[in-house]
Amino acid sequence: MKKIAVLMGGQSSERTVSLESGKGVLKALAEKGYEPIALDVPEKLSGLVCFLEENKPDAVFNALHGKYGEDGCIQGLLNLMRIPYTHSGVLASALSMNKQEAKALLKPAGVHVANGKMITKADILNGNALPKPYVVKPNDEGSSVGVYIIKTESDEQKLLADWPFDKPVLTEEYIFGRELSVVVLFDESVGIVEIKQGIGFYDYHTKYTAGAATHVIPAVLPQKWEDEMKKQALIAHRVLGCKGVSRSDFRFDEQTGRCVFLELNANPGMTPVSLVPEVVAKIKNLTYSELVDLLVKAAEYEK
User: Fold this and answer.
1) What is the tens place of the pLDDT at every residue in 124-146?
2) What are 8's strand-pairing partners?
3) Percentage of the chain exceeding pLDDT 70
4) Residues 247 and 258 in one domain
5) Would 300 be classed as within a structural domain?
6) Strand order across the beta sheet in which 116-119 lies
7) What is the number of structural domains in the chain?
8) What domain range includes position 163?
9) pLDDT tens figures, 265-299
């Protein structure tokens, strides 16, 4: 029986989501005949190293999200310890987590990215922000943590009054249209899901609250745009060097026929309401446990 360590929790702003992903993965591993062992990754690196050395897992399922978990840090450690792990390696993880750097690579490859730039609070105060409406978000966070949509002067003043960032942030033009995500699994664009919510945008609460949003799988799109979105997601997956599974987020404006890539998640959520397992189940007819099993069997470290 293979022993699989599930790394979960951690110290990032996405800790709660990671714990939920980890719980699901632990159950799935047991169902598939593995010996799962869980670790809520401690703040001190020594605790993680000791855990891995003592338990000697055959592989690691990386259920961490956010900083230190999916930005190449954990991946680098596992490479050094020569422990196979799921999902992408150091460089792909780091690039995917850095939205601006990822876009700089993807645009020349033919991916239609949103126009944007890195700014500070001073830039907004000096009138150097993008034309409204625009979006402000951390360059290296996921799960829509810290995202602000600035449509009016009032929105801008509220953001400035309670500026939550301690470093430059990414600003992008606000793209009107439908919210869509494409799942790529083992170098195949599996399918597209459309996220429909009543009011606002697909924020942290909406993503991880059952019933807060409706997922349409497969998304109903003109064939031309379905093919284009799948193509662009696969390009993004390949250019960034992703492995296993990734999820690319898009906006599609039917009125203008504009399809825009927003970002790629190289270690997408595995919670009960996460998009990836739902898309894979409905389009590939794979259960949650079967998906986990496939990811574990593909685990490897970078030599």
Assistant:
1) 999 888 999 999 998 887 545 67
2) 40
3) 94
4) yes
5) no
6) 116-119, 169-173, 134-137, 148-150
7) 3
8) 116-173
9) 999 999 988 999 999 999 999 999 999 999 999 99
In a domain, 101, yes or no: yes
* DSSP characters over 128-197: -SPSSSEEEE-TT--TTTT-EEE-SHHHHHHHHHT---SS-EEEEEPPPSEEEEEEEETTEEEEEEEEE-
- Torsion of Cα atoms, 170 then 175 then 178 then 184, to 10°: -40
The Cα 73–Cα 76 span in angstroms is: 5
* Enzyme catalytic residues: 14, 143, 208, 247, 249, 263, 265, 269
| Closest C-alpha among 218, 210, 162, 165 to residue 190 | 218
DSSP state of 271: S
Tokens of 300: 């490897």
The pLDDT value recorded for residue 144 is 55
Q: Residue 5 is inside which H or E element, if any? A: strand 3-8
* pLDDT at residue number 255: 85
On whether residue 303 sits in a domain, the answer given is no
pLDDT tens-digit readout, 207-240: 445 556 899 999 999 999 999 999 999 999 999 9
Per-residue model confidence (pLDDT) at position 205: 44
pTM of the complete model: 0.89
Q: Say yes or no: 260 and 211 in one domain.
A: yes
- What DSSP string describes 36-105? EEEEE--SSHHHHHHHHHHH--SEEEE---STTTSSSHHHHHHHHHT--BSS--HHHHHHHH-HHHHHHH
> Same structural domain for residues 15 and 154?
no
